[in-house]
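Why predict the complex rather than its parts? Because the way molecules touch one another can change local conformation, and only a joint prediction can capture that. The input here totals 593 residues.
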Amino acid sequence: MSDLSSLTIATAAKGLEAGDFSAEELTQAHLVAMEQSRDLNAFITETPELALELARASDKRRAKGEVQGPLDGIPIAIKDLFCTKGVLTTAASHILDGFTPPYESTVTANLKTAGAVMMGKTNLDEFAMGSSNMSSYYGPVKNPWRGKDGKDLVPGGSSGGSAAAVAGRLCLGATGTDTGGSIRQPAAFSGLVGMKPTYGRCSRWGVVAFASSLDQPGPLTRSVEDAAILLGGMAGYDDKDSTSAQVETPDFTSALGDNIKGLKVGIPREYTMDGMAKEIQVLWDQGVQWLKDAGAECIEVSLPNTKHALPTYYIVAPAEASSNLARYDGVRYGLRVEGDTLDDMYEATRGEGFGDEVIRRVLIGTYVLSAGYYDAYYIKAQQVRTLIAEDFRKAFNEVDVLLTPTAPSAAFAIGEKMDDPVAMYLNDVFTVPASLAGLPAISVPAGLDGNGLPLGLHLIAKPFDEVTLFQAAHALEAAAGFEARPEDMA
Amino acid sequence: MSLDKDTVKKIAYLARIRLADDALDGLADELSNIIGWVERLAEVDTDGVAPMTSVADMSWPRRDDAITDGNKTEDVLLNAPDPETAPEDSSGGGFYTVPKVLE
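Output of the joint prediction:
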């Protein structure tokens, strides 16, 4: 039997089909890895018994010839922002202490129907607010990758536990959620593929809300093909989410391996930032060359409002967060800190239940929505957001996809950047614009920095054109030939 | 614009978040920094630009105005922080409790 933890979703599905191993064996091998890697702190809740039960059920289906598709029997991890029936769901916040949903999010229900095996709930930044996984109430996550200096690094965030679990080979894929880069940046930091679909492609129902006009579930995997397969199991129209798109779910793998000859790739000039690390620029140039060599036509395009994207995001996202997080009041679920009056109870519960970064964002959101400031901040930001979306619309009249870096640096050390929120926010400078415009985007591991750490390249496509996005990403992946693994670094 | 301690106190009350007094100075600095940074948007010309209200071009789905869900008292109260409200407590279950609101 081959080393079961070195498989991809696609190769594991073939192995299951050929009878080389059972879903139970595959799951057991990953449960052992999960136990051995507890020091990563990738999981908030491990569900080994449930995993084995699901794996055995998958094996039974297979024996009866009732396989549900390529995800049947595949061990995956679920970001602890998805509500899972009967399984603790925390959003990595103290305020959700003990919360056990009596219902299942649509995305995880879809994955269950597809036969996927849930290994557990992964760690994240509290309420998905962060780029380092350091704001989790359950402690920081270690990146399986280490720098040459041996320091423990962040896996990125907010889907940091999912990234560490996939990069550390504790599962074959994981769900994440992306509001401003929370799937793509951790993917880049961990040498993985991370994909944010078009807004509306995956249902948000049962996903703990952060910023509802931006939040979107998506996959983290070790290959582009796996991302396409996993997204196929997550996506689909859902009448429980009023922003769910009533569109067909295509076969996202359908154009993988297709020639990209003649594909038009836009290189947005404004993504060249002042003070950008040289190795990021070098990698980006290399990416352009790779796509050219594969037959694509690379064209410089302009997205003039790019530099306004982050400030826009840091008005819109906290505003929506302050509204969404108003529900955590100690009355109906989670933490309650008693008080003499109702207001006392609210204030005590929220003061104790929320961590520093969540408090900062709720306060910023409350401020920009408050009387006298609403027009100057919130309406202004929504106007600029219209301009940013318009920039993309114009660019996509000329090109099929856009190529940019994913993040301005490789993974940084645990504890860094904590004293300067704005420095932390700059991590998302390349990922936020596509989020504001609701566009599908993907990060592909493309090289290593001088310290031996993974770097990603980022592709953005037109709304609902994930098939072309995966096609281009697959070509980029093939050209980059990224084979490095965290354990090679010792 | 910079936020002073009193403003932070006021918005913390609006957000119903209790802050320790010794946390106010630090927060006022941090929030002022963030607000100062997002204020760069003032330089963008947005005259006549419609604020984005929907990120996707989509028509909103409609459905019949019919009851499709409900009668889940047990599920709804399952996570109530006050165990006395548990539905199986026939003496007084079936609701959430809060501190007295009316005198």
